[in-house]
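It is worth pausing here to work through a concrete case rather than discussing structure prediction in the abstract. The textbook approach is simple: state the sequence, then state the predicted structure, then interpret. We follow exactly that order.
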Amino acid sequence: ALGWRPAVGTEIPFRDKWLLVENLGEGGFGEVWLARHEKTKDRRVFKFCFEADRMRGLKREVTLFRLIRQTLGNRDDIVKLLDWNSEETPYFIETEYTSGGDLKTWADEKGGLEKVPLDTRLEIIAQAADALAAAHSVGIIHKDIKAKNILISADIQGEPEAVLTDFGIGQIEDSNLLLAQGITATGVTRTSSTSSSQTGTRLYMAPELLEGKVGATTADIYSLGVLLYQVVCGDLSRALATGWERDVPDEFLREDIALCVDHLPEQRIQSANELSSRLRNLNKRHIQKEAEEQAAKEAERQRRRKKLFLTSSIAGILAIILIGAVAIREYKHREEEERNGYYSSIVAAAHLIEDQHIKRARELLADCPPAYRHWEWGRLQYLCNQDLMTLRGHEAQVAGIDFSPDGKLLASTDWRGNAFLWDAETGERKEQFLKEDGLFWDLKFSQDGKRIYVFYFPDNRNCSLIIWDIDERRRIRTLNFKSHVRGLDVSPDEKLVATANNDGKFTVWDIAKEKLIWLEQVKPADDILHEVTFSPDGRYLASGSKDNEVTIWDPNSQTAVHRLAGHFDTNLSLAFSPDSHYLASGDFDGRVILWDVETGKQIGEFFREGCLPAHKKGIWGLAFDSSGNRLATGSADNTAALWDVATRTEKQRFVGHWSHVMFVKFRPPEENCLATSSWDGTVKIWDTVPREIKESVFHHQGTVNSIEFSQDGSQLLTASGSELKGASPVASIWNIAEGTILSEFRGYQSRVKSAQFSPTEKTIVTVGGGKAIIWDISLASPIAELGDESNSIYCAVFDRDDNSIVTGGNGITRWDIRAGNEIGRATIESSVSCLAHNVERTLIAAGLDNGDLIILDYDSLEILKTLELNSKEIYAITFSRNSRFLMAGGESGILLFWDLKTNESKVLSTDKEEIYSLCITPDGKRLFAAGLDNSVSVWDIAEWREIVSLYHQESSVYSVAISPDGRTVASGDMEGRVLFSPSFPWSLEDYPGGESRDLQDRIETFKRKYWEEGGK
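Step two, the predicted structure:
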């Protein structure tokens, strides 16, 4: 036995100024203690061994830690071995300290594990599974997975992070793994293949270990499964007993636990990574199941509608027919399930995009069968790819980003010690200029663009400033700070570097002399400074702290100028305006405040719509543009935003990352692009100039009653105006690319109900006030005016050429435009509210104000068919492209499909109170319906089924049209707005690359060219 024993306040032998603070636990090996450095206040954990015959376990743990470090490097999710002593008494190993304690201690401090959100609990287990998988990957079996050996630390956002510890009874599968790393197998005399042991915690032990059999990595999986069960139940003392399934209401979690704790090792999940993946995709699994159930219900409903076939009397023929019928039925059944699954996936993806869950939406879209994809799929892909380009290549959370002064280069760093240079124009990676074992944080280019300052954290207790020479491609200086740094900044003249520390102080160093010139204890030692930044003119230094306070300092006098109080939570980010007159500060609650630097007074707060804070979660990144007129923000809510500084209102919101947005930087010199870095491992480049071509909104006075694209898609004809609003009625032709009005046509006192191009597009017809006027486009003057009190006109369509026109009102009339005479007429008992002709111009359809529909011969105007609906007025009608179907919508909100070949009709209810406008894609597969519910719904014409409402206007939608290429939908509303809604292609042939190439890579290539060409 060894003589020395630990006690509170005792200094550890061979560890100057390290004093024992608290006994953390005991075991057969000895005791575990928390120690604190008397001067630096750093804390570490020491595991002491008191019995000489117990030294083997201590040495084995050191060996396993060394194997992990030499093969995997320093991992944040496995406790780090800092030192050990096996030469003289007292023997011990020294590891890092985690502030949250073990899982049970952490949960108790939260008021009990059941009070912790289930998503957080599952993420902790997923993180533990990742750590365990890493250990397994180098042949290590832990053998003691339990709550006490899962430590909890906090990331810089305060979210819990699991850390795997205590490999004291661990084993290695093959001792050759040690020899390959040059490690002496100290304490490891047996491997898992030659030894069995009942050492461990029985509550978590796998059956094979309890039976004295040899264990493998699957024994650890069993233990992790028991821990998962406890975490789901919210009780870390609960044993896994018969009937445990009743304690787990979620069917997928029951399945996950069962796959971990199967009595047979070979039936268990074979990789801890698989468990972490299953847990992190829990929501997606639920969504997929809901989609499958919806598809199954729809398939069942469709099957019930099927008519039974009459059987043949001949047995042989019957057998053949029966086999064929079964095969056809099964094929149709599978086809229906696939189609219904597609519909469900589209709806789910649309909701995910609305909720800003872009990654999950992309996954759903990628799984959609190509045969069913159409405009709605392309539209959702468009919404998922709003950035100009996405830079991939980092294997961990991306932290720092910065553009070179000329804007040609972009540098980025990540938490795995990688630093890359990219071509900012093409997005191609030029080189990896740094690779370290630790974590890179922020970085910035020098003023002349020749050097890069990189902030590096080799571990949680130390930080360095690395200066990299770009031309010489070498490190020219490294300045080390032996303290736990949270934030750094280099002064504008590049002579100084300031650090914000974890112990409440900041420091300022002379870079050239590597000398500390200013140390300020801003807050108590147990407080944290999160950020520090110099003003562009170098006159000020600002710091932000955990206690919500922002302080502005004078570096010359080393005194505080202002202490700014206004935040209610931890300050995370700071940015000075280019003229140093203003300071923006962001906090953990998502608030951004603007301050006057000279007076220290709050100017105001940045609010999104509804007077809500700038973001839903903490603000990580802040950056002014060079004019100081715009401010960019990056947030833990996975979005970035652009703000008008003068009004403190939002200009743009950038949605596309699926994890925290860390830093934001404008690209010089034009600053028409913004770069964002994210924990999702990517850098995205965004357009900060409003997209005038594809997402523009054309504004009118009064309701936009009709819309039509020109044949080449370059122009848009609109009809607007409302006497109720007192707006001037007008028809307008717009240049879509420029967003400008080319011509205006005025001539009514009441609203312009509709406008339409002639076949040659040299004239247009406008309808309103009971009259139709034909206009010469080039002169913007009327050619003819048709209709009077005895023959009021409510709708019109051009004939096969520009010389005649068909109108509807008190009957249906064909006119000679030049002569102004009637040349044909059909008498109709009810008023005609809308007209449409088929593609071949052989038929004309009319919707009546009594709700009926009629079909007429195009030339003779003879009535061929009538469909009496006895409903309310019909507002909109359109033929299918093959002329077989007529679709109509109106005042009652119903949508009618009329099969003109079979005369069968189908009336479908919609969510709309009224349907005002209909249009069909050029290929005839999709129908768009606009109406009173402020949305445009998309219908599958072949199935007579609504797929989804993809976007919403701010008021009722009165008109809808689709571009000739079928890719852009335009919709006009009651408030006078026309919104363009583009779509990406839905055919894989339109995306570069072959089928073997990943779909997202193909979309990325297409997207870059698409935005480079202005969204064309």
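Step three, interpretation. The first helix runs from residue 55 to 72. The mean pLDDT is 87.
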